[in-house]
Amino acid sequence: MRAYRLDEAGGPLRKVEEADPIPRAGEIVVDLKAVTLNYRDTIVRAAEYGSAQKADLIPLSDGAGVVSALGAEVENLRLGDRVVIGFMPTWKDGPFTLAAQERALGGGFADGVLAEKIVVPASGVALFPDDWSFEEAAAYPCAGVTAWTCLFGGSGLRPGETVLVQGTGGVSTFALQFAVQAGARVVVTSSSDEKLDEARKLGAFATINYRKEPEWGRRVAEIAGGRGVDKVVEVGGPDTLDQALEAVRPGGEIALVGVLTGFGGAVNTGAILMRAVTVRGVYVGSVADLRAALASNVRPVIDRTFSFDEAEAAFDHLASGRHRGKVAIRVAP
Predict the structure, then answer these.
(1) What is the mean pLDDT of residues 260-266?
(2) Who contacts 183 (Cβ-Cβ below 8 Å, separation ≥6)?
(3) Taking the model in full, what pTM does it have?
């Protein structure tokens, strides 16, 4: 099979030919048809993800394809089934564990999906609707499940609540779509008026260009009736968290998922304490969460699809920040 592996930090992708994987008991082989990229993939490639990483890792976590081989004791799947693979395929359900995190695809020491085939546990995949493309299914494992967990994994999202979504990338676009479908009002921030216009077409209640309005947290609170929003999907990290604390209502919830501005920095802990705000770290979700998110039937926004030979160009497009929604790679017809 063909695959890409990483060399030194920040270096070019290396295309290789390798033996096809063979499933053991309880495992399946998936012939990958499409994969999608996340911001996580850029920091994995730069060797800035976690404390250690396999040197020649196959990158990317999000893939969908067709079951091509079954190991012994696999009874719930058939050859030819169209499946999407969980971000942490050993995390079937229940609370997050470090053991599950260690098997997150395309990061640390677990090879990912930028290849023609992968072997995974049979319990680590989900079927997806027949009328969906492989690219749409492959958009879900990281971004879709993360957005789903942000909105429904804590106190839950109720109709009529107000949500702040930062940006228009993969997680943020999914969060906008899920929240609108759930009957919530959504405020979206971005530095691009064009992207904000697209967010309104997807149902955003209000939009703010944070370049033109640097104190956007206060403005978000005003839009939410002066009391603040009920929930924030926080993708920026330390440089945006204080503004998110301005935007959220007392007793509200911030789902912290992003590190776009880094992993560390000063935080207004006094605002968290005195306003009784819940700041909840979200690290994607389980295979059960993947199935629940897919059941929403929300069709992902695919910004652009590249061929397998254009993997470098796909990374460049993601890094440019010009995308809205997901960047995909078609592995095979």
Answers:
(1) 60
(2) 158, 159, 160
(3) 0.93
